[in-house]
Amino acid sequence: APAPPPARHLFSDPAEIEALRGNLLAWYDRCKRDLPWRALAATEPDANRRGYAVWVSEVMLQQTQVATVIDYYNRWMQKWPTLQALAQASLEEVNELWAGLGYYSRGKRLQEAARKVVSKLAGRMPRTAEDLQKLLPGVGRYTAGAIASISYGQATGVVDGNVIRVLCRLRCIGADSSSPAVIDRLWDMANVLVDSSRPGDFNQALMELGATVCVPKAPLCGECPVKPHCQAWRRKLFGNRPPVPDVEDCGVGDCPLCPPATEPWDSSLGVTNFPRKAAKKPPRAMRTATCVLERRGCHGAPEYLIVQRPSSGLLAGLWEFPSLLLAQDLQEEKEREELADHLQAWMGRPVAAKGLQFIGEVIHIFSHIHQTYVVYSLHVDGDVTLDPALSPSRWVTEDEFHASAVSTAMKKV
Ligand code: SF4
To answer: Where does the record place the HhH-GPD domain (predicted)?
Structure first.
């Protein structure tokens, strides 16, 4: 077993833990944001629906800002107010509602898990973090802890990006915060700190603190309710006035939670010395040619051809303009020719590369991909018979396009 970390990185004094809980919860009661899922979790008598509502909100909030999520959440809960309603929806409907929220597999997995609750668990949500994680596909440790504590009052901690930041600052943890060793310690800490009488509120308070006060770049330490317990704050205050042993690192090089000896405390950064992460891999560059095929529809309005992506991989099952992944460093002429060949399959007749009109380039950043869409357009006369042996495809008006399950990147195109 790894050696226990030095005491300064832990919460071990019961009086301090009590005081921190009290300060944090009092602040939360005064300052918490009004969010629709919070209102529902606090007032809904049906335990299944409470768990479902928190689950939907937590999945939407992964990788997405609260302000964006609110509208999606409200529309989702209006359309599928219960697990049973969601279980009956089609994947196409789920993708349509999710369009624009990003990370599309989240919606798909949520619906698959809802189907499992209905078909295999007699419609009853599991009530503990352990069961939620074990029984629901796609529900990880964080989401399970959030649902169990907020909806069912289980005294279990949660660790998300906001909590990582707050805890690393509270306890001057400067080792790589994405490493398993640090993450394990943070989970231990979250489980020690959580208030057993109000676990859901405590967890939400800790996350809210990270989202609104202990923010990444310019934390509002002056307004922070847990400042008296914050070692990063103490170090910023006293760090330049030695000797103050309890604000120093534990010892050069041998503490698994202190900053590495090669990257010591930088007084110009203050509390934002924490947390620290290993450098991310740069995103992979991809180049895709895409063609907006346009025809005059039967009522005279323009229509556009969209085709469905494969059911797995990036943007699975979403619709897009006919597109072709290009090799890097192709000459423009060659790109055009390859796209023309690709379109021929859709059109069922030769397409002249010269007929493709270059419109421009659109850049879209996915989490790990830097995607450049090279956009062309082509007007089509007469009817085009779509080959049913190819991926599903259809002609849509502009309004229909926007109501379809298309990604933000395609809307940019
Ligand atoms: Fe974060 Fe500052 Fe509060 Fe410490 S005092 S927890 S750094 S906001």
So the answer is: 60-212
Q: How far is 64 from 162, CA to CA, in rounded Å?
A: 13
- CB proximity list for 355: less than 8 A, separation 6 or greater: 340, 378
Query: CA–CA separation, 412 vs 137, rounded Å?
Result: 32
Question: Strand 319-320 and strand 393-396: pairing?
Answer: unpaired
**pLDDT (tens digit, 0 to 9) for every residue of the chain, 413 residues total?**
566 677 778 898 999 999 999 999 999 999 999 999 999 999 999 999 999 999 999 999 998 899 999 999 999 999 999 999 999 999 999 999 998 888 888 999 999 999 999 999 999 999 999 999 999 999 999 999 999 999 999 999 999 999 999 999 999 999 999 999 999 999 999 999 999 999 999 999 999 999 999 999 999 999 999 999 999 999 888 765 544 556 566 765 578 888 888 888 888 999 999 999 887 788 899 999 999 999 988 778 899 999 999 888 888 889 999 999 998 888 889 999 999 999 888 787 888 999 999 999 999 988 789 999 999 999 988 667 677 777 888 999 999 999 999 999 999 99
Ligand 1 pocket, residue 227 CB under 6 Å: yes
Concerning whether 208 is annotated as a catalytic residue, the answer is no
Does the Cβ of 219 fall within 6 Å of ligand 1?
Answer: yes
Q: Identify the residue whose tokens are 């369009």.
A: 99
Are 257 and 289 spatial neighbours (Cβ–Cβ below 8 Å)?
A: no
* Cα-based distances in Å from 1 to 5, 31, 186, 258, 329: 12, 41, 17, 19, 51
Q: Is the CB of 106 within 6 Å of ligand 1?
A: no
* Choice among 18, 58, 130, 263 that is catalytic: 58
All domains of the chain in start order, with CATH: 7-273 (1.10.340.30), 284-403 (3.90.79.10)
Residue nearest to atom 1 of ligand 1 (CA): 214
As a whole number of angstroms, the distance between CA 187 and CA 174 comes to 16
